[in-house]
Design brief:
alpha/beta; 9 strands; single chain; 261 residues; Rossmann fold
Length: 261
């Protein structure tokens, strides 16, 4: 059976390494599992290109800009309409559609459906940071095989707060939070939510791998900062483990019904 995966590109025509990393991961996964995986990339923000609801799996990327200022834009209406259709489909059908939302897509989903509180950060967050799993996160198959805390690439100007609201949301599970703020009394950002059995998302970038992060560091920071971050990157296998674990775990769960069915 051919597994159809739609990759929604939220980068608005700007150069990025995330889509390539996602496609490489899908290719490697298909080869490792001896599966035929068909992938299609949809340039939503730049070309108003949106997948229909006939794919088996959807992965929606991170991207630049404000997840609040796009309210009412045509591309966002298309995205939200697709999400509504997929949710309706899952409520009515045994043939479930699985969706993974990364960073910007995660923030948009939270804003649309009222998960937590979307706010702008005082400063940009960029780097490789520890992320702490909640008890629900430790039990979730998405994070099977990772230590607690684990490390991931974080790159954002916005954040979703108010984890208590997630704990009280019907059917939602708070899976991960950012590291403790040792020197500041500020609320920890939500880093991952399971919105339903089929919909899950992360504020961080699980697709990131060392080569891509190194290129991003060179493009964004001065030489002194580059050296510190690249040395940290080259001295750890932490994000390699994250890259090799989270999205493949998601695919395992998403593909299972089609293989076993």
């Amino acid at each position: 059976m051919q597994i159809k995966v739609a990759v929604i590109d939220m980068n608005n025509g700007q150069p990025n390494l995330g889509i390539g990393a996602i496609l490489d991961m899908l290719s490697d996964y298909g080869k490792s599992k001896d599966l035929e995986i068909s992938t299609a990339v949809f340039d939503l923000r730049n070309k108003l290109d949106i997948p229909d609801h006939n794919h088996h799996i959807y992965i929606s990327s991170g991207g630049p800009g404000s997840p609040a200022d796009s309210e009412g834009e045509e591309w966002e209406k298309l995205f939200f309409d697709l999400l509504d259709k997929l949710k309706t489909h899952n409520n009515r059908s045994e043939d479930k559609k699985h969706v993974f939302l990364i960073c910007h897509s995660f923030q948009l989903f939270c804003r649309k459906y009222g998960f937590g509180t979307l706010t702008k950060r005082k400063s940009n967050s960029f780097g490789i940071f520890p992320i702490e799993l909640t008890a629900m996160g430790e039990a979730d198959p998405l994070y099977a095989g990772l230590p607690n805390p684990f490390y991931a690439v974080d790159s954002r100007d916005w954040q979703v707060l108010n984890s208590k609201a997630i704990l009280n949301a019907d059917g939602a599970e708070l899976l991960a939070l950012e590291k403790e703020h040792v020197h500041a009394d500020v609320e920890r950002c939500i880093m991952s939510i399971r919105f339903s059995k089929e919909f899950v998302g992360t504020q961080f970038h699980p697709e990131a791998h060392p080569a891509g992060v190194k290129a991003a560091i060179i493009n964004q920071f001065d030489e002194e900062k580059q050296q510190d971050m690249i040395e940290n990157l080259e001295n750890t296998d932490n994000i390699i483990l994250t890259h090799q674990t989270i999205l493949p775990n998601f695919l395992d769960e998403a593909i299972k019904p089609f293989i076993n069915g």
